[in-house]
Amino acid sequence: MDVNKLLRPHLHNFQPYRSARDETKWQKDTVFLDANENALGSPLNDNLNRYPDPLQRELKAIISADSGLKADNIFLGNGSDEAIDLLIRAFCEPATDKILIMPPTYGMYAVSAAVNNVPVCQVPLQSDFQMNLAAIRKTIQTDSAVKLIFICSPNNPTGNRLADNDIEMLLKDFGGLVILDEAYIDFADRPSWKTRLAEFPNLVILQTLSKARGLAGARLGMAFAQRDIIDALNSIKPPYNVSALSQEAALAAFRQKKRLGQMIATIKSEREKLSRFLQSLSFVEKVYPSEANFILVALPDAEAVQRHLLKQNIVVRNRSAIPHCPSCLRITVGNPQENERLMQALSELEPQK
Ligand code: PMP
């Protein structure tokens, strides 16, 4: 696959922003008078007065060791939301090229497309929340403007993983890029597709430090793909898109392997506990199985339940407005105390016997 052919034409000879430090070999006594920083220091520590490494090399080295992928195959962004936006901006010509999404799914694919004036083809998931491969095939065969297909697995807000066979078929059939968003993969029963990246030149995997790794506040997202795709994203990103504080926090996260495993185990067992509890409630219509850190619940009156919870200062997400998700709440698995409060509050809605 020739990434250049997919790239928007005006980016073929594009000159990215370069800092003087890109070309320099740093030494211990190097004097940095190139970037208009304040050499006297910063309010927090000795390094924050300096711009961070634009290519996040130390962090990529640890992610590379963790993932088994080369640093050249890793892009880091200000949340995976930044990677979603940059993929659209790099590969979709506004008002001409399209992205394909499978609702109900994560809202930012369509929002980023809209911001960039890129039309969206929607091929809804089927009633079992698996993709409609025949309809997707028909769309991509008849509409050559589709450049990117976004797949979210485990999917937000439904919580299920999409079938590996279907993903593989799409990767083989589609001449554009398949963006596989694995934000919730750490909570799933199957491993990431990262190990298969080399097999599929059109595969881009998105992951984030906002979920299992507990760093939503740091804003750090990862994209894994073949080198030409990563180079394209790096060439159009703002130079210092990941702050020094975020890079430091992420380094700490990758060093805490044991803690990660423990947190995932707790979240999964709390998810199962919550799921069983929700199924036991007489006013709950359906509890969807989840391989993520949230549970989708269908209720006859989602809004009333949401209001009741809100009165007790418990915020959940009402997903009823999004297509194919009628009267549903999406409930994030909290810590054990929070989950107790949630269960207590929901119990109050049970009719008294
Ligand atoms: N992808 C999915 C499926 C998500 O649910 C989210 C956040 N809710 C994101 C991406 C964005 O993650 P980040 O915090 O890394 O921007």
Your description of this structure?
The chain has 2 domains: 253 residues, 3-Layer(aba) Sandwich (Aspartate Aminotransferase, domain 2), CATH 3.40.640.10; 90 residues, Alpha-Beta Complex (Aspartate Aminotransferase, domain 1). Helix 5 links the parallel strand 2 and strand 3. The longest helix has 24 residues. Helix content is 36%, strand content 13%. It is globular. With 353 residues, it is α/β, with parallel strands linked by helices. Bound molecules: 4'-deoxy-4'-aminopyridoxal-5'-phosphate. The site of 4'-deoxy-4'-aminopyridoxal-5'-phosphate has 12 residues, from helix 4.
Task: Set out the fold topology.
Blueprint: H1 3-6, H2 20-23, H3 57-67, E1 74-77, H4 80-91, E2 98-101, H5 108-115, E3 120-122, H6 133-142, E4 146-152, H7 164-173, E5 177-181, E6 203-208, E7 221-224, H8 227-236, H9 244-255, H10 257-280, E8 286-287, E9 294-298, H11 302-311, E10 317-318, E11 328-332, H12 336-347
Parallel strand pairs: 2-3, 2-4, 4-5, 5-6
Antiparallel strand pairs: 1-7, 6-7, 8-9, 9-11, 10-11
Helix pairs in contact: 3-9, 4-5
This protein binds 4'-deoxy-4'-aminopyridoxal-5'-phosphate.
GO biological process, one term: L-histidine biosynthetic process
InterPro entries: Aminotrans_II_pyridoxalP_BS, Aminotransferase_I/II_large, HisP_aminotrans, PyrdxlP-dep_Trfase, PyrdxlP-dep_Trfase_major, PyrdxlP-dep_Trfase_small
Domain Aminotransferase class I/classII large: 45-346
How many separate structural domains? 2
Strand order of the largest sheet: 1-7-6-5-4-2-3
Please report which band the strand proportion falls in: under 5%, 5-15%, 15-25%, 25-35%, 35-45% or over 45%.
5-15%
Cα-based radius of gyration, to the nearest Å: 22 Å
Protein structure class: alpha/beta
DSSP, total strands = 11
CATH superfamily of the largest domain: Type I PLP-dependent aspartate aminotransferase-like (Major domain)
Counting copies of identical and different chains, the oligomeric state is: single chain
- Count the DSSP helices: 12
**Main sheet, how many strands, which sense, barrel?**
7 strands, mixed
CATH class of the largest domain: Alpha Beta
Q: What's the end-to-end separation, in Å?
A: 65 Å
